[in-house]
Amino acid sequence: REAGRQRREKRRGATPAAAGTPDPSVPPSGVSCSGCGAELQCRETAAPGFVPSEKYRSLSGGPSGLAGLRGAVCQRCWLLAHHGRALGLRLPPEQHRRVVSAALRRPLRHGRGPLLLYILDVLELPDPVLPQLPGLLGPDVPASGLLVVGNKVDLLPADSPGHLARLRRRVAEACEQAGLHDAPLVDIRLVSAKTGYGIEGLVSRLQRSWRCAGDVYLLGATNSGKSTLFNTLLCSDYCKSRAPDIVDRATVSAWPGTTLNLLKFPIINPTCDRIFRRQERLKEEATKTEDQLSSEEKKCINQLKKQGYLVGEVGRTFRQQKGSTVVDFDPDMLSYSLDEDPQDFTKQHKEREEFTHNEVKDARWCFDTPGIIKENCVLNLLTEKEVKLVLPTCAIIPRTFILKPGMVLFLAALGRIDFLEGEKPAWFSVVASNQLPVHISTLSNADAIYEKHAGQELLKVPMGGEERMKEFPPLVSQDITLKGIGTTEAVADIKLSSAGWVAVTAHAEEKLLLRAYTPKGTMLVVREPPLLPHISTIRGARIPGTAAYRTKKLPSQVENLKTTGKR
Fold first, then answer.
1. Rounded CA gap, 316 and 237, in Å?
2. Which intervals of the chain are annotated as region Disordered (predicted)?
3. 213 touches 144 (CB < 8 A)
């Protein structure tokens, strides 16, 4: 019976248990995990910052004492980063919000309020957390300004010329609807923290805010890309030159709520000389063509092109000169395997490099904060393996289908759209992770298909068969009435929580009655106007005998490089 239970949990991708033994007699360390910011401890396996007591003692038992824990990561971060697995943690529902709220209410530094950098996932518009921001700030947070960053623009294809300007307008409208009046909105930027698109422009904009702002806080919902942006800024001209060698990277994972406490790096003072040198570097790089890049740069650019439609290089003007000292690095000092017993290490490891007092005594800091948990989100219902399939990690290739009344579209087993009434066929364009399957059926067969294939390979997510579906919420419906505006422009997006959306395109004045389904407890949104109104035009020829069109992937574009005229 126990073996059978373990097999079922393995199929479901069940949350793994912590390895190693706790020691309740050891007090918390006062040292933060360099990956998520939680305080390192070995007292309780289910609490944030847990390190097995054997590992904890091996790191803190040397001559440096607790300082030996500096740079170490907790077991949860290690599993996320190296095994893609997530430990379950007993966190109060408001834990992340309390950490952010307390951070924003710290005493003013440098006589100026903080600059708030709100990271918004453009795929999630309307952003579910943005309307909560005024309440999170309150009247007692004297913010010097709010800069909204629309992230993940690299995942969306250009459905028409000027699509980025349209996206920016959509973000501005979301800010206006959220009632962001207490903190003045200083700018809206569109970036990709992953591919580097728009980052150099964001750095320049942040440096122009130096004189009127204090510390900078990265805010946003879970999975918006805050930690990825934190790591990208850490390797840019925004941080002090030695910071990339001293400050550890934040743990980045598809699992919601990876960051548990504050992470930070010191911001460089953008003096006139530094601004001049930076501008000279940017001008020089703008004169290069892709053919003039080094082989290493070309390799990096080509790799990023595979991941997104929009790519940008993030350079560094101010680099710390390094000596030629060979560092004897022992990876076992900062890591462990669940397959091995913890060991004691007697060899001495090199002392970590630290900032000097003068470097940070008057520094302003950039803080990565815990993401605010999205309520009514389908990701909250999924296992870690399922989350990886649902969240898009590379350029989304739209999939368009032409459906007649009486036909049904399934997006995995997470969403369903029934075409109930209409006089003419309509086009349904799916914008979701390329790994999520789309299945077309008739209305008469739809219930039987869901009953038979939910939890199985055909619909793929959720996965785990009948046992998984017994605990998964049923699909609940919402009727939607739309009126078409033309065969090349969608009238609305039907957003199936965070699983993706379906853009509906219909003949002008054609009335459609649709019924859309999402799992109970998740949010279904009809987005009007649609985010990518001309998405149905990004398609190949109709596949004979099916409702599907061949897919079409648009070429990637590289920012800040001189074009050669070749396609």
1. 5
2. 1-30
3. yes
* Cα pseudo-dihedral 416, 417, 418, 424, rounded to 10: -150
- Whole-angstrom distance, CA of residue 538 vs CA of residue 124: 21
Tally of CB atoms within 10 A around 215: 22
d(CA 521, CA 379): 11
What tokens were used for 89?
A: 């943690």
Mean residue pLDDT of the chain comes to 83
At 503, phi and psi to the nearest 5? -85, 130
DSSP 16: P
Q: Which pair of structure tokens corresponds to residue 270?
A: 């953008």
228-255 residue pLDDT tens: 999 999 999 999 888 877 777 665 555 5
- Per DSSP bridges, beta strands 185-190 and 263-267 are unpaired
- The secondary structure of 98-125 as a DSSP string is HHHHHHHTSPPBTTBPPEEEEEEEGGGP
pTM of whole model > 0.90?
Answer: no
Give the CA-trace dihedral at 22, 23, 24, 28, to 10 degrees.
-90
Q: Where are the alpha helices (DSSP H) in 247-294?
A: 272-286
For 18-41, the pLDDT digits (tens) are 677 888 888 877 777 777 777 788
Strands 310-312 and 415-421: unpaired
| Sheet hosting strand 407-411, strand order edge to edge | 438-442, 407-411, 415-421, 511-519, 475-483
In degrees, to the nearest 5, what angle opens at C-alpha 124 toward C-alphas 99 and 532? 155
User: Are 103 and 369 spatial neighbours (Cβ–Cβ below 8 Å)?
Assistant: yes
Task: Name the amino acid, one letter, at 143.
Answer: A
With beta carbons less than 8 A apart as the criterion, state whether 8 and 464 touch.
yes
93-314+358-375 CATH pick, 3.50.50.60, 1.10.3720.10, 3.40.50.300, 2.40.37.10: 3.40.50.300
Q: Which residue has the tokens 């409208």?
A: 173
Q: Are 559 and 197 in contact (CB under 8 A)?
A: yes
